[in-house]
């Protein structure tokens, strides 16, 4: 693999481990746990892995001498996130520390490789090429859902063939939900295979008090913030465009909030606030138009607007419409596929409730068609394909024309549109993510040695220097609740949304009125890998605010 000068320098970087993981460790059990909601339902579905205690690792003053080798499998599941290679590197180094003859097998292209028995043994020669690099290309990723007994049994065949005693699934909330189901099944049939999860998603919605952040969030938001800062510098130079910027985050607005804290745009919409205030699409448009007009009155016909990818689903009326659409299209997929494209909107409208039909037919045809596109693997609208930034920009322009005719707006409005998504998913990890991911993988090896299953690797105290981080694990069932998927109730990890009384949102809310009218742009610049810790090793601003008092 040919490497750039930066990659060569990064390959030499040695991620910093929590001091507790640098020697022999022992697992200390806490109190039994329960699911975040729907306790009776989750307990009934996971009788073998429910109610397990939290685990924290401590130094072991009397370590056992000698350990037998262990073979481990690893899967990268779902969308890419910076740092995945370091999770695998940490896992590799961890099992080699248990015994130098331990072996690591990577299943190719995600869970599909596990089911189809496609794998590669990950040797030091392979691992060393990918340390501290972005992407998931070491073994590839995929979105095959592990949810059927046939898949579990097929996967077990290759685990037995390779004498694999533990499987590590690196993924987001849905992937770790699948890991939990797999752990329960293998425990039920006494398969002798441990299943451990690692928290991955740039969206930042896989977290709680013990999983303080998902890996990749720090790097991705720093990449997006650099580009937003560049746009704001251009915006402040040309002084003639309003830039509408959509950011990844279909189910939560953590990315938009973090980028706002870093860049101080004129407008940042937080989907959770829209839902809490029961705002309509027109409410949002009017709010943006009022800020555009206020800035124009000061001679500033330019600015930036940050929009979370999943906004449409948080507008209460739209959320109800989309829920009915999901059920309608799931139940009538075959018939819908036969409808001529020009007739699909009327076909859908005729089958919706009167209120939702009215909302659906009021939408621009382009947006209505986008709401009817094929669902993602989880049965949800593919909100990344809905051009919310253009919808808002065009609606703001119409509103400004109306305000101008009423004598309430004097200015010029020209819009530019952007969507930042893939740009941040495979970046070289920041020092924070490089350290955090390596620690998550190494910690997973400690969970394997502790003999547990159905646990997620947990590294916390993350606002402190990495040597002070706390390592352990939490039962995945602890994070679960019941949600409607494909028209039926299913157990899933509960998504962590932006909390409106949380420290990060409160800090944003305190400042946004000033950002709206004034030009207080911040230009964060590119990620720095080498230099003083205050420049290179800082965690996200969200994490700092959320855990400032700890």
TrEMBL record:
Highest taxon of source: Bacteria
Subcellular location: Cytoplasm
Catalytic residues as annotated in Swiss-Prot or TrEMBL: 203 (proton acceptor)
Coiled-coil segments on the chain, per record: none
Requisite cofactors: Mg(2+)
Short name of any one Pfam family annotated for the protein: PFK
Binding site for Mg(2+): 173
EC class of the enzyme, as a word: transferase
InterPro entries in alphabetical order: ATP_PFK, PfpB_PPi_PFK, Phosphofructokinase_dom, PKF_sf
EC number per UniProt: 2.7.1.90
Annotated site residues (Important for catalytic activity and substrate specificity) in this chain: 174
Regulation of catalytic or functional activity: Non-allosteric.
Phosphofructokinase domain residues: 71-312
Record keywords: Cytoplasm, Glycolysis, Kinase, Magnesium, Metal-binding, Transferase
Presence of the UniProt keyword Transferase in the record: yes
Function of the protein: Catalyzes the phosphorylation of D-fructose 6-phosphate, the first committing step of glycolysis. Uses inorganic phosphate (PPi) as phosphoryl donor instead of ATP like common ATP-dependent phosphofructokinases (ATP-PFKs), which renders the reaction reversible, and can thus function both in glycolysis and gluconeogenesis. Consistently, PPi-PFK can replace the enzymes of both the forward (ATP-PFK) and reverse (fructose-bisphosphatase (FBPase)) reactions.
Family in the record: Belongs to the phosphofructokinase type A (PFKA) family. PPi-dependent PFK group II subfamily. Clade 'Long' sub-subfamily.
Protein's recorded name: Pyrophosphate--fructose 6-phosphate 1-phosphotransferase
Phylogenetic classification of the source organism: Bacteria, Pseudomonadati, Bacteroidota, Bacteroidia, Bacteroidales
Gene name of the record: pfp
């Amino acid at each position: 693999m040919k490497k750039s000068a930066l990659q060569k320098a990064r390959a030499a970087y040695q991620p910093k481990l929590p001091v507790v993981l640098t020697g022999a460790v022992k697992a200390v059990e806490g109190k039994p746990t329960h699911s975040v909601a729907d306790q009776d339902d989750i307990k009934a579905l996971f009788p073998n892995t429910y109610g397990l205690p939290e685990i924290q690792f401590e130094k072991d003053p009397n370590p056992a001498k000698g350990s037998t080798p262990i073979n481990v499998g690893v899967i990268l599941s779902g969308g890419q996130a910076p740092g995945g290679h370091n999770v695998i590197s940490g896992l590799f180094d961890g099992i080699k520390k248990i015994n130098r003859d331990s072996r690591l097998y990577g299943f190719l292209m995600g869970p599909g490789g596990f089911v189809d028995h496609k794998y590669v043994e990950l040797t030091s020669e392979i691992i060393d090429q990918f340390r501290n690099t972005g992407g998931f290309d070491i073994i590839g990723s995929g979105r095959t859902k592990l949810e059927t007994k046939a898949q579990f049994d097929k996967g077990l065949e290759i685990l037995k063939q390779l004498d694999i005693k533990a499987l590590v699934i690196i993924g987001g909330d849905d992937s770790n939900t699948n890991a939990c189901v797999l752990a329960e099944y293998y425990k039920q049939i006494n398969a002798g295979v441990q299943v451990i999860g690692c928290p991955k998603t740039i969206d930042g919605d896989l977290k709680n008090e013990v999983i303080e952040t998902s890996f990749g969030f720090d790097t991705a938001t720093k990449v997006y913030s650099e580009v937003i800062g560049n746009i704001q510098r251009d915006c402040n130079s040309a002084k003639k465009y309003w830039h509408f910027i959509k950011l990844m985050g279909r189910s939560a607005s953590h990315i938009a909030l973090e980028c706002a804290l870093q860049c101080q745009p004129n407008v940042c919409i937080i989907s959770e606030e829209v839902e809490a205030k029961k705002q309509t699409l027109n409410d949002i448009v009017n709010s943006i138009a009022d800020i555009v007009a206020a800035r124009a009155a000061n001679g500033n016909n330019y600015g930036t607007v940050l929009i979370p990818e999943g906004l449409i689903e948080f507008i209460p009326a739209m959320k109800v419409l989309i829920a009915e659409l999901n059920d309608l299209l799931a139940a009538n997929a075959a018939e819908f596929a036969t409808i001529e494209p020009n007739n699909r909107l009327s076909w859908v409208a005729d089958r919706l409730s009167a209120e939702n039909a009215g909302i659906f037919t009021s939408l621009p045809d382009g947006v209505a068609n986008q709401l009817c596109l094929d669902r993602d693997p989880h049965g949800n609208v593919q909100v990344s394909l809905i051009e919310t930034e253009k919808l808002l920009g065009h609606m703001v322009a119409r509103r400004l024309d109306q305000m101008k005719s009423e004598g309430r707006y004097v200015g010029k409005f020209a819009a530019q549109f952007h969507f930042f998504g893939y740009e941040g998913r495979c970046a070289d990890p920041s020092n924070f993510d490089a350290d955090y991911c390596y620690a998550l993988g190494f910690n997973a090896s400690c969970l394997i040695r502790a003999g547990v299953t159905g646990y997620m690797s947990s590294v916390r105290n993350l606002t402190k220097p990495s040597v002070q981080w706390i390592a352990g694990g939490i039962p995945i069932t602890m994070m679960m609740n019941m949600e409607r998927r494909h028209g039926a109730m299913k157990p899933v990890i509960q998504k962590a949304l932006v909390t409106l009384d949380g420290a990060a949102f409160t800090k944003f809310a305190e400042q946004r009125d000033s950002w709206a009218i004034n030009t207080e742009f911040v230009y964060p610049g590119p990620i720095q890998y080498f230099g003083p810790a205050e420049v290179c090793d800082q965690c996200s601003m969200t994490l700092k605010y959320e855990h400032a008092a700890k």
